[in-house]
Amino acid sequence: MIGVLVSGNGSNLQALIDAGLPITAVAANRKDAYALIRAREAGIPAATFGLDCHASREERDLMMATWLEEHEVELIVLAGYMHLLTPPFLRRFPDRIVNVHPSLLPAFPGAHAIADAIAAGVEKTGVTVHLVDEGLDTGPVIRQEAVPVEPRETLEERIHAVEHRLLPQVVEERLCLAR
Ligand code: GRF
Fold first, then answer.
1. What is the C-alpha separation between 124 and 9, in angstroms, rounded?
2. Among the atoms of ligand 1, which is closest to the Cα of residue 11?
3. Could you give the 3-state DSSP secondary structure of residue 54?
4. In which region does residue 154 sit, left (phi positive, over 0), alpha (psi from -120 to 50) or beta (all else)?
5. Taking the CA of residue 4 as centre, how many other CA atoms within 13 Å lie in the half-sphere pointing to its CB?
6. Atom of ligand 1 nearest to the CA of 160
7. Rounded CA separation 36/23 (Å)
8. Crossing angle of helices 155-178/113-120, nearest 10°?
9. How many other β-carbons are positioned within 10 Å of the β-carbon of residue 5?
10. 164 CA distance to ligand 1 centroid (A)?
11. Is the Cβ–Cβ distance between 39 and 66 less than 8 Å?
């Protein structure tokens, strides 16, 4: 079973849903994440774990981990989740948390990877799916695919198309390994 963490639009969540993967829980760090609507429309239990309702990030993460375990989650997917996870959460799911990032890591970590690649003038960027550790977009790479920067007007769209193909493939493989 898969738990997906989201913060925003949730197009990667939608790709996982459309691939028929067994998602049993979707958790967001913000109530207004459109991804929560996608989860509810697919009939998947969804909950918000905002920092405003918890004394610390650690406490929030522990409550979220417990909720995910209650939903029998074996693998966690960060699909546009914009908070770093604290060590207590990471220890609950060792080697079972994957993230999708819109660059060829270690190049261009952080929240503005596509704009940063354009600004740097590189010829190619891409998509990385990797295991999550304590760092910002660090952790062992599972799979990468390059995407040419030009034409830059369509770069974001082309990167998302690769994400939506690559992430479900990797998640399916990792789910098998997690069992
Ligand atoms: C994606 O580009 C993902 O790589 C990055 O955040 C974006 C999330 O998009 N981590 P969405 O919410 O899945 O549409």
1. 25
2. 14
3. coil
4. alpha
5. 32
6. 2
7. 13
8. 130
9. 27
10. 10
11. no
Which mutation among 160, 166, 167 tests ligand 1's pocket best, with the greatest number of atoms within 8 A of CB? 160
**How far is the C-alpha of 40 from the C-alpha of 71, rounded, in Å?**
15
Closest by CA position to 79, among listed 121, 27, 124, 116: 27
List C-alpha distances in Å: 96 to 3, 22, 88, 117, 130.
10, 15, 14, 29, 10
Within 10 angstroms of residue 143's Cβ, the number of other Cβ atoms is 15
Q: Does the structure show a pLDDT above 80 at 179?
A: no
48-95 pLDDT, tens digit each: 999 988 889 999 999 999 999 999 999 999 999 999 999 999 999 999
Model confidence at 147, in pLDDT bands (50, 70, 90)?
very high
Q: Which two tokens stand for residue 5?
A: 């963490």
Question: How far apart, in whole angstroms, are the C-alpha atoms of residue 178 and residue 74?
Answer: 6
Contact 49, 63 (CB under 8 A): yes
Report which DSSP code applies to 113.
Answer: H
Residue nearest to atom 4 of ligand 1 (CA): 101
**pTM to 2 decimals?**
0.96
